[in-house]
Structures are given as C-alpha cells and as structure tokens.
Amino acid sequence: MTPLMKIIGSFVSPYVRKVLACMNLKGLHYEVDPITPFFGNEEFERLSPLRRIPVLIDGDLSVSDSSVICAYLDEAYGGHPLLPSDPKDRARARWLEEYADTRLGDLFVWGLFYQKSVRPAVWGEAPDAERVGKVLSEALPRELDYLEKEVSEAGFLFGEIGLADIAIATFFRNGAYADFKADGSRWPKVAAYVDRVLGHECIASLLPFEDIQRSSDISRRRQALLDAGAPLTNETGAARAAARSDGPVRRAPGGCPALFLHFSSG
After folding, report:
1. Could you give the dihedral angle defined by the CA atoms of residues 44, 15, 201 and 173, in that order, rounded to the nearest 10 degrees?
2. Beta carbons within 8 Å of 258's beta carbon, 6+ residues apart
3. Phi and psi, residue 206, nearest 5°
4. What whole-number distance in Å separates Cα of residue 9 and Cα of residue 181?
5. Are 66 and 101 within 8 A, CB to CB?
6. Whole-angstrom Cα distance, residue 266 to residue 6?
7. Are strands 61-64 and 55-58 parallel, antiparallel or unpaired?
8. What kind and span of H or E run contains 186?
9. Domains and CATH numbers, the chain
10. CA–CA distance from 119 to each of 59, 134, 175 (Å)?
C-alpha cells in the first residue's frame, strides 16, 4: 500500500493551512504531524534545515516552503488546478501568492497574531502595543486599499477558487484570532471576498482542528485532534522543549519554522 503524503506543521500556521487547503481542493489524501510552533526535534531539522513549516513528505521526497510544495502538488497530481491556465493570469496569481506570503504574513502574523495571541499565551508577556497600533492604523489599511482594487466583487480571482485566493485569505484567519476583521463599510470587496474564500469547504473543513490546536492543553491536544477526526501521523517530530524568536530573522516567503513561530518566511 502506498504511504499517504505527510504534512508536518501546526494547523494554526497560515502556511500549513494554505497547503492543506490546496490538497483538499485537489482531493489528495494526507496525514498531518501537527507540530506546535516553537517545537521540533532533530529529525525535523534534518527534513527542514531552516526549521520551517510546512514540510511535505511524499515517498522519497521531503521539501519545505509552502509555495514550493503547492507548485509540486500542482505539477505532480491531477485534480483541481491551483493556477489559472492563461500565462498572464498565472503570473498574476504567482505575484499575489508572493505578496500574501511576505507582506500580509508580516503584518497579520508578526504584527497582530504573535503580539496579541502568542506573546501572552506562550511567553506571559504583554503585546507590543505600539507595533500593534501602527499595524492597525497605518500598515494594514494601506494593504487593504490595495486588495480592494485587486479582488473580485463576486466569486474568486480567476474564476474557480485557486492558490492565489487561498494564499491571501489564510492570513485573515490568523488576523481573526487576533480580533481583526476587515471593515466591510471601508473595504466591502475585501470583506466579502475573504468570507467567500474562508467559507469554501477546502478551508472551512480545517477550522475544527485549528480550534482544538488553539484551545487544548498540549498534553491532551493530540488525542483531542484524533477524536475530532484529524488525519494525524502515528509518529511525531515534536520536541519537549521550546525556543523563541520575536520576528523574522530573514525574508523567506512561504512557510515558518516550527521551532520559532516564523510565520512570515518560506
């Protein structure tokens, strides 16, 4: 029997969510090793030398970086195409994925989610209020103004839902975990578009597992995920101890180190 593909990474990571949603869209079967951010053993480091999640294992192939993984899935497997067929549309879709992975990742994850959710919960520290304030008052409005011109009033960016849609919307899920939602009176197209994408079954089906990963005690989390029907691996690459980082060490667009919660990199 051919082993299932394996994804290593937390359900809460926007980059892991992006990959799993694309796999769901293509009808691919997989197992998940839901490493909690800040954790990852030596075997994980061998598979992901830069300690980033997600990691894909497909037979003798192991590769990290969500953009690389999604490109591989689209080239290696049939089913729903992740990119549009027109070359110009494909170029635009790739740009929007890059834009989301870098700029939206920096703002939503490091500027909001890490500050308002991770620092208090994991490290017992107050958020950097000045940083959060600048993100909310200056940086995010600029990006939402840009997206308001780019997204569709109805449907998705290139007809059927695809990689670019998922790459953008995944960060708004983490923004919601930090109590942010696009103001529908100021950015009506963005607000409606994000709701459409996040409401699609390929992403919406992951929400129960995210809720468990966010709310369960770590000692009971794995069993709670199994009880909820999460397709988990039999073995895990999680380490016992956690390490920390307060922001990206270097730019790298498509994933995040599980050990350092590096959500804004590849």
Report:
1. 130
2. 8, 9, 10, 35, 36, 37, 38, 39, 40, 44, 48, 51, 52, 53
3. -85, -15
4. 25
5. yes
6. 18
7. antiparallel
8. none
9. 87-202 (1.20.1050.10)
10. 37, 18, 15
63 beta partners: 56
pTM: 0.89
Residue numbers of the chain with a pLDDT score lower than 70:
1, 36-40, 238-266
Residue 209 structure tokens: 């597992």
Q: How far apart are CA 246 and CA 262, in angstroms?
A: 9
Task: For 57-81, write each residue's pLDDT tens digit.
Answer: 999 999 999 999 999 999 999 999 9
Identity of the amino acid at 262: H
Of 41, 46, 38, 83, the residue nearest 64 (C-alpha): 46
Write out the two tokens for 193: 């578009």
Phi then psi for residue 2, to 5 deg, are -70, 130
First to last CA, the chain: 32
**Cα 86–Cα 103–Cα 261 angle in degrees, nearest 5:** 115
Examine residue 54 and say whether the peptide bond preceding it is cis (omega within 30 degrees of 0): yes
Both tokens of 63, joined, read 């590769």
